[in-house]
Design a protein that fits this description.
heterodimer; A: mainly alpha; 8 helices; B: alpha+beta; six-stranded antiparallel beta sheet; four-stranded antiparallel beta sheet; 6 helices
Chain lengths: 190, 210
């Protein structure tokens, strides 16, 4: 028989993503997991559908991906990435596996640890906020191609065809958008 | 000091977006394991994608939650054992080759090893060239990616040491010479779309067993 869980006196809505993941990692907290699920399952499902999965298959895979979030929570490193980015990397691997039966090998820096992207949780929160604001501020034509490239996983030539613009234009729009967001991330982290 | 040779930005982007074929993704991940700069760059691109995920206009899927909650306490699948660190094979590559690559001698001074975990016929191979080997001028059909894992060589277009990515475009002609004091081990990935017509192309086809 599972032990009854403590009722939580506070609203999960205000708890940062990273705190939820830490609660899952250290206490196997199912309420914290359910809160994460509420935030991300729909987004992960959309990520899969935009990548080309049928809706029912995407529902199943979304469940597998969120289960992986539960199982791998101890390995989440808040100095390296935001929770959204971490979940993105898990979903990316599973989508590549579902679409192409391929794996996505991940880099592991040897010896000297890579410089952490964020020194503190406050830095990470600022960077996430700056990224969110910069995304909302992108000109529509840049936002569209960025979304096609990094969310839908379309190639530059597919995007060019779909939007009837030259491939060079697509590449430069994506590049300019990425540079703006990078600058926001770096500026926001300081 | 030598300049470092990095992976071009479009390959880092394709890796981060998940559009790179597995051979190229392995090349990028192996290089980034030896190159903090490209590692950082990939992290930034992934952060952009994470930002898009966080901002994606999607409704919560409470209907999917019960199915997952029911599986939380199930035993997780057994993960493949990790190999201990290897003297020259970085972790992502080691997972494909194992600690003892199956070297086959092709001609004196040239050995290759397959990556058993990749499906057969993929245009990727490990090569080991003996110390002092000269590779004569040859023209590339399609792009080719070479990552130095141990030893080094000097080519027309620069000096290449451990961690350096040598990315050659379609139509490039070059030659290189392996250092006299040590053999040179590289990871070689080739454009899968190109049917080889040149001598070296055939040589590579032979290397990969395709």
């Amino acid at each position: 028989m599972p032990a009854p869980r403590d009722p939580r006196p506070y609203a999960w809505d205000d708890v940062p993503d990273a705190t939820l993941v830490e609660a899952v990692a250290s206490m196997r907290d199912k309420d914290a997991f359910a809160a994460l699920f509420t935030r991300y399952a729909g987004r992960v499902q959309l990520f899969l559908v935009r990548g080309g999965l049928a809706s029912a298959a995407a529902d199943d895979l979304t469940q597998d991906i969120l289960l992986e979030v539960w199982r791998r929570a101890e390995r989440y490193d808040p100095a390296r990435a935001s929770v959204a980015t971490w979940i993105f990397t898990i979903a990316r691997s599973r989508r590549v596996d579902a679409l192409r039966r391929e794996r996505v090998p991940t880099p592991e820096v040897e010896g000297v640890a890579p410089t952490p992207a964020f020194e503190t949780q406050i830095d990470r929160g600022r960077a996430e906020g700056a990224l969110r604001a910069a995304l909302a501020d992108l000109p529509p034509e840049q936002a569209r191609v960025l979304d096609c490239a990094y969310f839908a996983g379309q190639s530059m030539s597919e995007i060019a065809e779909e939007h009837a613009v030259p491939i060079g234009t697509v590449k430069s729009r994506v590049r300019i958008a990425v540079e703006r967001l990078r600058a926001a991330l770096k500026g926001g982290a300081q | 000091m030598n300049e470092h040779h990095h992976v071009p930005d479009d390959l880092l982007s394709a890796y981060a977006a998940g559009t790179a074929p597995e051979t190229v993704a392995l090349f990028v991940a192996t290089h980034a394991s030896l190159c903090p700069m490209c590692y950082g760059r990939i992290s930034e691109l992934e952060a952009v994608a994470g930002g898009l995920l966080a901002a994606a206009p999607a409704l919560p899927r409470h209907d999917l939650l019960a199915g997952v909650l029911a599986r939380l306490d199930a035993p997780p699948p057994v993960e493949p054992a990790r190999h201990p660190p290897h003297p020259y094979l970085p972790a992502p590559l080691l997972a494909y080759t194992g600690p003892n690559p199956g070297w086959r001698r092709l001609v004196p001074g040239v050995e290759t090893a397959d990556l058993p975990l990749l499906h057969a016929g993929k245009p990727v191979v490990l090569t080991r060239l003996a110390a002092g080997t000269r590779v004569p001028p040859h023209t590339h059909r399609g792009w080719e990616l070479q990552l130095v894992l141990s030893g080094g060589y000097t080519a027309d277009d620069g000096r290449f040491d451990r961690g350096d990515a040598h990315c050659v475009d379609d139509g490039t002609t070059h030659s290189f010479r392996v250092d006299a004091d040590a053999p040179c081990v590289s990871l070689l990935v080739r454009d899968a779309r190109i049917v080889p017509t040149t001598l070296f192309g055939k040589f590579f086809t032979w290397l990969t067993g395709a």
